Amino acid sequence: MTIQEKFDLTGCVGVVTGGVGLLGAEFCRTLAEAGAAVAIVDLNASASQAAADSLTKSGYKALALPTDITQPDSVHAAVEKILSVFGRLDVLVNSAALDPKFDPEAVDKGITPGAFEDYPLDLWNSALNVNLTGMFLMTQACVKPMIEQGKKGSIINICSTYGLNGPDQRIYIKEGKRVAFKPIYYTVTKAGVLGFTKYLAAYYAGTEIRVNALTPGGVFNNHEEYFVKNYSAKTILGRMAKKDEMNGALLFLASDASSYMTGNNVVVDGGWTAW
User: Fold this and answer.
1) Are 41 and 138 spatial neighbours (Cβ–Cβ below 8 Å)?
2) Domain CATH code at residue 257
3) Catalytic residue among 60, 185, 186, 231
4) Which of 69, 79, 98, 258 sits CB 3.0–4.6 Å from 141 for a disulfide?
5) Structural domain of residue 251, as residue ranges?
């Protein structure tokens, strides 16, 4: 098998949750460009359909699946539709997650978002429901056809450097004033993603169902200048990631290029965790 053939996904079917998100959309196009048919799973019905239409117009196979990944019936309906349309399921990318967005005017309002001491229980529960329970339900549903297809497939769980280390809350300070705290749920759930990954990899020992994590560093998404400066100073490469800089690692994990890899975590963080 040539190196090009190892990365080729022709004939495969990939599923991406959070498929219209900043990284999820990149992952959908990456899988499609590598030859896979792609199921775009997202709560946003109109955006997922627009994403599927865009891929289809580019000559790729894509299916929009508006889905609430926290609801078992919604998840099962989505997987049944994938199988009825494409006939198989080979790759699952668990990319859906709640990630807090900060109000730039919060300081002027006398608010410090994300403070642990007063963090609301309902927000904590919502985050665990999406970031962990949703991943659990999607994986349960998607792994069954992988087993039936010969116990082969690739499951990729999207983690974060904040699942490896606690957030440096100093980078959320602007002109000497605290803008926000990265909330507790993000580190807890992303650390849980790693535990989930290792558990499943070990559980499917003796099969060719591989389970790995991909851990991005901070990806630029129109962040304020102070944050970009603070964040970039902590990376060896001196900048935030571009949204397409996770795609190579994603394709590696999805394809036979990583056929001897399971239970591992690929970190793409510009050197954030290296010092």
Assistant:
1) yes
2) 3.40.50.720
3) 186
4) 79
5) 3-274
